[in-house]
Specification:
Layout: E1 14-16, E2 28-30, E3 50-53, H1 54-63, E4 70-73, E5 79-82, E6 85-91, E7 99-104, E8 109-112, H2 120-125, H3 127-132, E9 138-140, H4 156-171, E10 177-181, H5 190-200, E11 204-205, H6 208-211, E12 224-225, E13 231-232, E14 248-255, E15 269-272, E16 275-279, H7 286-289
Parallel strand pairs: 1-2, 2-3, 3-4, 8-9, 10-13, 10-14, 11-12, 14-16
Antiparallel strand pairs: 5-6, 6-7, 7-8, 15-16
Length: 290
């Protein structure tokens, strides 16, 4: 849950990921990604342009059909926004369209990360990180797991392996067996859903309200379906299939909050009957933040 108040003290008039209260007085707006906890107060008639990534722009135009002041930022390309202030969008690896923002002027350089999770090799391959290393005047960082209890998380690849194994082992038993992926929030598990679809070859059943959020995102083509499937990603309380007594349902909950003090040698899953929690995070661990 984002707690950032929105404004950068180094760049007056700029607001990021918050669009209410004093942020209404800003003249330049930025959205790092389209998860609802970063969109508080967002509306059609902001008093200035809203800068986003190309994928986020597609999502916003679908949700806010009267919003006319969206400006897209090309990844890695420096853009002049106002009176000598420049911004560069950097991949954040949190969800489709998520970016960091690097703000620069003749006097100041500030990085706002938003929510992110990048592998070490990803960081090495993003050249701008090498250019700004040790040269930032301030850093606004995703602090979701800036806590000694969350020193480490498994990689998303390892977590996804565990989830896919649980799915395939279960649905192979019969067509009556269903795996229900039950994420902790409506948004934030897009990478996982894409990988499940890619590796199983099956589309995930989802409710119509959530499906509409993905209609126009190229990265999510074919991932979801409104028709029958053995793999479900329906939001609570689930569709009729996952609530049917005639079906054998395995519930899989990807989450990080239950994994305090997790170590590399620890298992990735917890089981209670046919309910499995799997250690999975789209945010950086404390070690990764360091």
């Amino acid at each position: 849950m984002s707690t950032f108040p929105g404004q950068l003290s180094e760049f007056p008039g700029v607001s990021i990921d918050r669009f209410d209260g004093e942020n209404c007085l800003s003249s330049l707006f930025f959205l790092s990604h389209c998860h609802t906890d970063h969109m508080t107060g967002l509306r059609d008639n902001l008093p200035g342009p809203l800068y986003v990534s190309e994928i986020s722009a597609v999502i916003l135009r679908n949700r806010f059909q009267n919003m006319t002041n969206i400006r897209t930022l090309e990844i890695g390309v420096e853009t002049d926004i106002s009176n000598g202030v420049r911004v560069t969008a950097i991949p954040a690896g949190h969800c489709p369209g998520s970016v960091m923002f690097l703000f620069e002027s003749a006097y100041c350089r500030v990085l706002y990360t938003g929510d992110f999770r990048l592998r070490e090799r990803d960081v090495r391959n993003i050249r701008i990180f090498q250019a700004i290393q040790g040269k930032l005047d301030n850093l606004y960082v995703d602090s979701t797991f800036l806590n000694r209890d969350f020193e480490d998380f498994p990689s998303r690849v390892d977590s996804t392996d565990a989830i896919v194994n649980l799915i395939e082992e279960w649905i192979s038993k019969s067509s009556n067996h269903i795996a229900w992926i039950k994420p902790p929030a409506r948004y934030g598990s897009e990478y996982l859903f894409k990988e499940i679809h890619r590796r199983t070859g099956k589309s995930l059943h989802i409710d119509l309200d959530n499906l509409s959020n993905y209609f126009h995102i190229p990265d999510m083509d074919g991932v979801f379906t409104l028709h029958g499937s053995q793999i479900h990603a329906c939001w609570n309380p689930g569709c009729s299939a996952v609530r049917s007594e005639a079906k054998e349902v395995r519930v899989i909950r990807p989450t990080a909050m239950f994994w305090r003090k997790w170590k590399i040698s620890d298992p990735l899953t917890m089981r209670t009957c046919n309910f499995f929690r799997v250690c999975y995070s789209s945010h950086s661990s404390l070690r990764e933040l360091r």
